[in-house]
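Below: protein 1.
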Amino acid sequence: MDQYIGFDVDSKKTVACVIQPGKKDIYQTLDTDPVLLRRWLRQQGQGGRHKLHLTFEVSGMSGWLYDELVDSVDELVVSNPSKMPWIYRTAKKNDRIDARKQAVLLLMGEIPSVHMPARAVRQWRDQIQHRRKLVNLRTQVKNRIRAYLKGLGYRRLPIKENWWTQASHAWIRTVFATDFILRDLLDQLDLLHQQIKQVTLRLDERLKHHPGGALLQTIPGVGPRTAEAVLAYVDDVTRFGSGKQMSSYFGLTPKLDESGTCRRLGHISKQGPSVGRWLLVESGWRVIKVSASLRAFYEQVLHGQPSRKKIAVVAVANKLVRVMRAMLLTGECFNERLVLEQERLEAVS
């Protein structure tokens, strides 16, 4: 007999709802302790007499909980709550309702599932996010230093150096030796430089051992940071049935507003990993300078209108994702001629 179980999980407690066709729903509140949850699941399975199907929503704890419980059930699905309200709407909301909603959708086969990668891949993603946050922090500190110096009347440094060389920092420390604010900001900047350098070395080492790293970097203008983000978040390229699906995963496809005969494409969805989308767009600006085929595609979307530059470069990023998917599937390096031929075929069709 199949049992469909929905968990509503928080850091302290987990509310479980068990649905079994023909029987009354069962609710139970448990501590969010993997040992207790596994023991409870074994009781529900009754020594293999029941086939257990479990689901819970994706969260900061979902990867850890997935690893702890995946061997205790016959099926484990991590759900996407942002897509769930469109399938199962209710005005009421509490832990029991949320747990039952999960179980019902699992029984119906309508759970909007989330791909759950291996622990090593999740850690790789965390490292990529960590580096991006460090870079953002460094930018904030730089902006504070420049703003502070401008407040002291220094719109530019009196020495022939840019703001962020070692000579510039030495000059600032010498001239403003008693200014503890500038000293603290420069110390923060030095620390962030070292932290970024260390995490970058670790990421470079991780990418070096991935066969797709060197492959994706054969695309002119695509560097290691973009390659690693795509590889880490795609994980298994075969889970995307088309290039459009992979572009949609990175939030690079336009939203569709369709009613009757009216069909309007809006802004891109911006769903999925923001760090991957940001890096792909940054790569888009670079590739149009060094790749003839992608430059031609950019000019085609631009259509001679400077106001469409951002639209065109996002379209290039979308195109890059499709090209990357094809390369990862075939194992072939980037080929300008094939991209141009594909553009001509799409233009004819």
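Below: protein 2.
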Amino acid sequence: MSFPNLPTRLHGAELAIETHAVSKQYGPGTLALDGLDLQVPDGSVYVLVGPNGAGKSTAIKVLLDLVRADHGTARVMGIDPARQPALARAQTGYVPEVVDTAYGWLTVRGLLKHHAAFYHAWDGGYADALCHRLGVRMGERFRALSKGGARAVALVAALAHRPPVLLLDEPTDGLDPLAREEFAGILVEHMTHSPTTVLWSTHHVHEADRLADHVGVLRHGRLLLQAPVEDVRRGLRRYRAEVPDGWAGAPGLNGEVLVRAGSGREITWTVWGEEREVAERLSASGAVVRDASRLSLEDSTLALLRAGSAA
């Protein structure tokens, strides 16, 4: 089955983050990024989704020059991180997938004070308020914190200097449900008061659903799709239809079907395309369309990652 012709380029947007043809290989046979063209519009919340090993963390590290690309270029607020890494990092707040405990002997208060020294825009009052909201224990040594506690400190460190770009790699991993909800509220308030572009890599797509402006779906280091969320919601539908015995399918739709399910006389197809046209093609083939439902952002990304599978 051919793969649908999905959008992978954004047009007309002023970009805060972009990569062009970025490739990165870790040893023989391990290609983490394969010609990545990432486009994150200024002031947007861009959700980057993909399975483990898709290249999400590597892409973020390239933007910080923590990993050097083998080929291609990257820009953060117009700055090439490979040429001016300190300047690029000064524009960003970064929450890594794995929080570094190299300064674990420091108390949380001492660690944040150390972190503040690198940012002239550090807002101590804001940092204290964030710590209070996230339940951070300032007097405890960093290495003694739980995974969720260390993650909360990383969030404070990323936000407190109010950077124009936030790079969030699984930012809620380890947080309890209440802290996850608190984080969502904090992020909304932060963006309201501080103009910010957010690149949010996550497995918990439902958490970003109400905030996301754009989505990128990454698999094997390449973007399957890159588009405004509203375009995805318009372009992707799950169709439930009854079909006659011996039904041979719908000519012209084979290249647009992401997931096929169902058996016998009832099918469920997830299809990329304009709803009226898809329904007309199904009807013309002898199918009776019973329902065409929109998908949540999480279900949409799962369908894209499962493309070509069958029930």
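The longest strand covers residues 15-25.
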